[in-house]
């Protein structure tokens, strides 16, 4: 193997190794076969367990709509005074509030212990949900579920961004996200099977959905205590040799010079909070998740309004999520290869808006066209969620800032979840015209934000090339547009 680059030299010699990934070969001096094998090793060790946990989180988070169709709405009287919407919203305030604290805790305790333990907690929460007697109990358990799930998605974005250079991050985040989403989509069939169980006088089918998925969460979580890997700089990361760790660190240093961890302080948080580009990414993410949550919670009702019921209803929820894989992975690879982020976000917003318009505004009898709208809306939204989170991570430096950014951006995704049930109102069912119009406007604003952000990034890059501006406290760092 070629001689490894000393990391301290990389850090100190800003002219020899820059964070300007567009002109620096981060693999210079390494055997291509070694790099390829190392990336494959990291990919298979890192992404599948995280995708499995994310699939479980989506199953557990989104089973509210499926359980509602299986009798929960009637039994708990959720169709009175927006009780269903209150149960949906209860998940998100603790989910948003605890994300940054979760990232700090994960850094100290280690991802291997932090993430699976959260899944164990929410599996117990689901078990308790199966025995609630009223809508207040359901709402309380939804809030506890939000506390537990505050760990996973922001923690995963933070962890992945610390492992991969900028030109590789979108592909990995998209693989993690769409694989988890596709697996979760099949849970509709599991929910249908569980909903047919009826034992005793109180264990109706919807309760078995929660009992079965509680057990499934536990089964997935326990092996992850051994499968999840930690941050590359951590002494707890043992699946790589010291030589392989040095290669990983060297590639990160050449790309953006932040392989070494730095602590998150109140002063840093205040400084990061003043960075307007992070709020721009947060808004774009919020706009996308607003539509995505609305789709997940209300798709069963929309498809039911097309005349489908029973097993057909549950089966029709699966294909759109599978299509998202076929669309999302090529988009992410192209984004990484070209170093373009914002144009792909704009493209997927346009696709999502087209799909939302089709299933909302086509005539009731145009079943095929409306269902096609769900297909392409899901593809655009499921592609944009990982693209937006990865784009926000390519525009920053520093591991502390990564922890803050992932918490802020994903936290705003929770804000989208809070808004969704209030704009997709019970009285507007099953077409939800008001909610769809609201989402279309928010997506249009997100496109405008991307255009402004792109113009600002180009301006900053030009100033940096002339030596008149330092971006992200590194003289050779450049934004990927």
Automatic annotation (TrEMBL):
Transport as UniProt keyword: yes
Sequence intervals crossing the membrane: 113-132, 144-164, 176-195, 207-228, 278-298, 313-332, 344-365, 371-391, 403-424, 436-457
Keywords on record: Membrane, Transmembrane, Transmembrane helix, Transport
GO molecular function: transmembrane transporter activity
Subcellular location: Membrane
Keyword Translocase: no
InterPro entries linked to this entry: MFS, MFS_trans_sf
Membrane topology listed for this record: Multi-pass membrane protein
Gene Ontology cellular-component annotations: membrane
Protein name as it appears in the record: MFS general substrate transporter
Organism for this UniProt entry: Pseudomicrostroma glucosiphilum
């Amino acid at each position: 193997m070629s001689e490894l680059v000393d990391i301290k030299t990389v850090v100190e010699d800003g002219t020899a190794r820059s964070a300007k990934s567009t002109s620096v070969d981060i693999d210079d001096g390494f055997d291509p076969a070694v790099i390829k094998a190392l990336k494959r090793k990291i990919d298979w060790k890192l992404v599948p367990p995280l995708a499995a946990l994310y699939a479980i989180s989506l199953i557990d988070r989104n089973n509210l709509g499926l359980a509602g169709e299986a009798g929960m709405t009637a039994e708990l009287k959720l169709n009175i005074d927006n009780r269903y919407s209150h149960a949906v919203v209860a998940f998100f305030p603790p989910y948003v509030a605890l994300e940054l604290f979760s990232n700090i805790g994960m850094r100290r305790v280690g991802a291997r212990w932090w993430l699976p333990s959260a899944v164990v907690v929410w599996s117990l929460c689901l078990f308790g949900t199966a025995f609630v007697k009223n809508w207040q109990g359901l709402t309380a358990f939804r809030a506890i579920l939000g506390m537990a799930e505050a760990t996973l998605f922001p923690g995963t974005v933070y962890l992945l961004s610390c492992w991969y250079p900028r030109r590789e991050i979108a592909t990995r985040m998209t693989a993690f996200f769409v694989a988890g989403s596709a697996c979760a989509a099949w849970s509709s069939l599991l929910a249908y099977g569980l909903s047919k169980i009826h034992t005793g006088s109180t264990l109706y089918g919807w309760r078995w959905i929660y009992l079965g998925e509680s057990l499934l969460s536990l089964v997935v979580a326990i092996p992850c205590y051994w499968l999840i890997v930690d941050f590359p700089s951590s002494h707890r990361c043992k699946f790589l040799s010291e030589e392989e760790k040095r290669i990983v660190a060297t590639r990160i240093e050449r790309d953006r010079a932040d392989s070494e961890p730095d602590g998150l302080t109140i002063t840093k948080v205040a400084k990061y909070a003043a960075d307007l580009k992070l709020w721009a990414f947060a808004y774009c993410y919020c706009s996308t998740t607003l539509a995505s949550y609305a789709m997940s919670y209300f798709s069963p009702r929309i498809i039911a309004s097309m005349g489908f019921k029973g097993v057909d209803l549950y089966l029709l929820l699966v294909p759109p999520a599978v299509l998202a894989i076929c669309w999302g992975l090529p988009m992410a690879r192209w984004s990484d290869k070209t170093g373009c982020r914002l144009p792909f976000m704009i493209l997927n917003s346009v696709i999502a808006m087209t799909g939302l318009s089709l299933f909302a505004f086509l005539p009731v009898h145009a079943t095929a066209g409306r269902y096609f709208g769900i297909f392409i809306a899901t593809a655009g939204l499921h592609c944009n969620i990982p693209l937006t989170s990865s784009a926000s991570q390519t525009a920053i430096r520093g591991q502390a800032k990564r922890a803050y950014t992932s918490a802020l951006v994903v936290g705003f995704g929770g804000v989208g979840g809070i808004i969704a049930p209030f704009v997709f109102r019970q009285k507007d069912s099953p077409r939800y015209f008001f909610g769809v119009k609201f989402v279309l406007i928010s997506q249009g604003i997100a496109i405008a934000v991307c255009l402004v952000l792109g113009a600002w990034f180009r301006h900053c890059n030009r100033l940096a090339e002339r030596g008149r501006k330092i971006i992200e406290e590194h003289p050779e760092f450049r934004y990927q547009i």
